């Protein structure tokens, strides 16, 4: 991972007011870029967010032989007439989870590939066993190396399979979709993830000529077709960025209109925001968020869609440090997603972690010694402090903590934040945050 371009110095206790425009969803656009590998025709993606993650994925595609042409500053046209090399450098190992999604498209185009492994990260081990088991069921022969995985397929290509995922994994569902659209026969994915970002990928694949149907009870059926064509697509708006700014508006006692936000994408989040004391309005341009009353605690359990998403957990926890009483948060998607709480406690928060499944039903992490539940006691005034961002979503939680704290907090590790949030400092400044970027 590269180093920080700058630190942020944030002086807190100012209500944020104004409007920001939501960017295209990071977790959709990166998959749409991979989908372009499935055709020799040009594909155009518009509404591309200006985030570091997009640059990384475009670099990977360029290495594989994709022609990349910017039509304007948010629209990119990608053409992969030929695969120049079907393997990606091990230097990408541990960088992100996108190369593993390229396995299916590269098998269709070249019959074999070697792909760098994503590695674990600070929020959990994040294995890829579901991905590999699914591809094996489709006829791929897989050899695992310490930092990469080599995959090949017989001359007649991938074949359809009936795959039941052990858990509705977003990445594994996307991987199997990208593999099955050009496979021989009809693939069934049971216990599939159905996040809006997956629906967005399906819409692009449908435009390209794929036959995908989303059925009841988490079943996705993919009838393989022999060829896909080019398409033009705009990713859905980033529902994590929407929730992040919503939580910041409520936590600071201000009002932020998020231009381009769509109520349907954040409906579950809105219920919890309201239970805590926040409110929203549908405006002509998007959604506006503000604090409606004194903040009160809630029990929350993160889950796969349509549940309360794990990437909305961190801004909510910071908000709950300002609610009067005890809130319980049970994280059921990742085993290790509360590591950021320690630095919040150093600022004055009262967050206690537990290995028990608190406030909900037993999850996959029951009796497994992971600190995956938190009790937040509030309200606690926060003091400014030095903050080192450990991962992308914890990064926004620290920004929020600094925005409500007394004094000036200096935040490092901003590279993690800028991987997935578009111009966070600029957007926050535009709604009145006292945020200074200090080059390093
Ligand atoms: C995607 O990760 C997102 N990343 C994550 O966003 C998001 O938190 C997550 O989905 C859940 O919504 C991208 O889209 C790039 P999963 P993904 O496979 O696909 C376990 C962010 O900050 N699992 O649904 O990797 C896994 O360990 C992030 O933007 C296996 O055990 O998530 C986890 O506990 C972080 N074996 C659970 O499933 C597997 O083979 C859910 O993971 C695959 C997953």
UniProtKB/TrEMBL annotation:
UDP-N-acetyl-alpha-D-glucosamine binds at residues 97, 311, 333. One of its GO terms (molecular function) is UDP-N-acetylglucosamine 1-carboxyvinyltransferase activity. The modification 2-(S-cysteinyl)pyruvic acid O-phosphothioketal is found at residue 121. GO terms for biological process: cell division; cell wall organization; peptidoglycan biosynthetic process; regulation of cell shape; UDP-N-acetylgalactosamine biosynthetic process. It is found in: Cytoplasm. Residues 11-423 form the Enolpyruvate transferase domain. It catalyses: phosphoenolpyruvate + UDP-N-acetyl-alpha-D-glucosamine = UDP-N-acetyl-3-O-(1-carboxyvinyl)-alpha-D-glucosamine + phosphate. Pathway: Cell wall biogenesis; peptidoglycan biosynthesis. It comes from the Bacteria. Keywords: Cell cycle, Cell division, Cell shape, Cell wall biogenesis/degradation, Cytoplasm, Peptidoglycan synthesis, Pyruvate, Transferase. Cell wall formation. Adds enolpyruvyl to UDP-N-acetylglucosamine. Belongs to the EPSP synthase family. MurA subfamily. This is UDP-N-acetylglucosamine 1-carboxyvinyltransferase. It comes from Sphaerisporangium album. The gene is murA.
